[in-house]
Amino acid sequence: MVRGELPVHIHAHRADDIVTGVRISKEFGLKCVIVHGTASHLIVDFLQEEGVSVITGPCLGTAPSRSWPACP
Description:
Number of domains: 1
Number of helices: 3
Largest sheet: 3 strands, parallel
Helix content: 25-40%
Mean pLDDT: 85
Number of strands: 3
Distance between the termini: 42 Å
Strand order of the largest sheet: 1-2-3
């Protein structure tokens, strides 16, 4: 990562968290990839300008924390 051979994986969902992760990566001279990026569709222009890729998913259903019943 530090030598720039591998990108940093930033696990973020919200647009502001994604932007913060990209900003910090850029500040330290690191390549990055956004993992999940639920709200990345809101900042497509920013991501394109920065050359940042997004790995999305899961794309079906609702988030487990909202759909699974509470454990007893």
